[in-house]
Amino acid sequence: MHVHLIGICGTAMATLAALLKRRGATVQGSDEHVYPPMSDFLTLEEIPVLEGYRAEHIESSFDLVVVGNAISRGNPELEALLDRKIRYASLPEVVRDQFLWQTRSIVIAGTHGKTTTTSLAGWLLLEGGVDPTIFVGGIARNLGLEGSSYRLGGLDGPFIIEGDEYDSAYFDKTAKFLKYVPDVAVVNNLEFDHADIYPDLDALRLTFRRFLNLVPQRGLSVIGLDSPAAAALAPAVRSRLQTFGLSEQADWRAVDIQPETEGTSFTLIASGIDQGRLLVPLAGVHNVRNALAAIVVGVSQGMAIETLARGLKTFTGVKRRLEQVGCVRGVTVIDDFAHHPTAVAETIAALRAAHPGSRVWAIFEPRSASSCRRIFQHDFARAFASADRVILTSVYRSTLPETERLSETELVADLTRAGVDARHLPSVGIIVDTVAREAESGDLIAIMSNGGFGGIHRRLLRAL
After folding, report:
1. Is position 202 within any domain?
2. Which CATH number goes with the domain that contains 341?
């Protein structure tokens, strides 16, 4: 096949491009305003990326054009393929049709932790002698020398994929994971998100119920009980069911959680039986929950607890998830993908637990469709209240009506009243100058955004 991907630098699109190439297709794509890590990933994969969107990029020889979910009517390449009636499809359709019908699919879903849990579960299977194909919405450090968002396994191995609840394409507004025909479905947690797609939490609940309703009776549904909205999905499950979390009602529990120099340790309890002490080399209670979900997946594929425990110790994490990008003058700069209030709070809590004596800065770019909206105004105030210093840059989607847009001024005022040193600084340059001037040895600078944030990480390290 000759395949062209419009919007190829999206994380999932770039990963699909690499998988198709490894399966023998001729692959290329187009995008604009690209930034690492996926631009670097595509370079390493030797997949050509055409700069910008132009009608002449669409060739009659294409067997298939994959339309990314960020592409809408008016895009020159989309208009060209519609005019010429060239075969096109959404990313999840291509994943299903080219890969998932032929294998056992393990789909990891939830509002938070999908990328880490998918990467961790894939690694545990790989270390346990299973030969999985892995499709991650980020760069997993254990996959390849430079890290990767995928691994192509054997035809007999399972396919483990991150299941996104975001919509599929401009022509298909249903969730991606509804295409992924799960044999094993994991719902780590469930909270309101994607305010541009879902009007309220009830709409999200319905989508997740539909997802779990795809699991066959012989399959397995895995649900995190610590999330009330996720736990409420359990009665509707028609397959076998396993639960996990810190709750006493969970089939798989973590107790006696302790921060360690190497990560976080906990005692694993399965169906009331002590399975011993385990270590996950990641910070934070949220990553213990991610590890529990990955362990349940491993056991479902026939792996022993002892094997899973060994694999857990050697996991090296995911880029942009509490990733230390550098340390200068004793100041540590950390990159994190957090853009939801719960993820922000968990990131700060993890840093506090791992570094109890350090001053924690939180630098936040409201960029995602939900974080730019006023719906999380008070939730962000609560989430950032545990940081020592907070710097908020301007809302990325500035064209939103003021009544719907997150108020930087109000958020700073709420945090100041709570005793937090909070400021709104409108540009990356001003933020870099301010932090470089005021940061002290021992400080942790957590930079949170779901985008490139103007290359702030490297600029700050240079300034320091």
Report:
1. yes
2. 3.90.190.20
The one-letter code for the residue type at 309 is A
> Residue 130 has what pLDDT?
92
Determine, yes or no, domain membership for 179. yes
Q: Are residues 269 and 300 in the same domain?
A: yes
Helix, strand, coil: what percent of the chain each, to 5?
35, 25, 40
Query: What is the SS3 assignment for 377?
Result: helix
Q: Which two structure tokens, joined as six digits, stand for 259? A: 């921060």
What is the CATH number for 157? 3.40.1190.10
Pairing relation of β-strands 105-109 and 184-187? parallel
Q: Give the C-alpha separation, 164 to 332, whole Å.
A: 31
Looking at the structure of the chain, the number of domains it has is: 3
Do 391 and 454 have their domain in common? Answer: yes
* Mean pLDDT, residues 275-283: 95
Same domain, yes or no: 105 and 247: yes
Query: Phi and psi dihedrals of 324, rounded to 5?
Result: -80, 115
75-127 tens-digit pLDDT: 999 999 999 999 999 999 999 999 999 999 999 999 999 999 999 999 999 99
Predicted pLDDT of residue 196: 87
Burial (0-12, 13-18, 19+ Cβ within 10 Å), 87: exposed
Give the residue from 251, 263, 110 showing the smallest Cα distance to 118: 110
Give 221-257 pLDDT, tens digit per residue. Answer: 999 999 999 999 999 899 999 999 999 999 999 999 9
Which domain does 289 fall in, by range? 99-313
What digits encode the pLDDT tens for the residues 301-332?
999 999 999 999 999 988 888 899 999 999 99
Tell me: pLDDT of 35 over 70.
no
Residue recorded with tokens 């998988």: 19
Which residues partner with 109 through β-bridges?
A: 187
β-sheet bridge partners, residue 255: 267
Same domain? 140 vs 243: yes
- pLDDT at residue 11 above 90? no
Query: What is the Cα–Cα distance from 1 to 5, expressed in whole angstroms?
Result: 13
DSSP label at residue 323:
E
Last residue of a domain, one of 285, 313, 341: 313
Buried b (16+ CB within 10 A) or exposed e, 322-335: bbebbeeeebbbbb
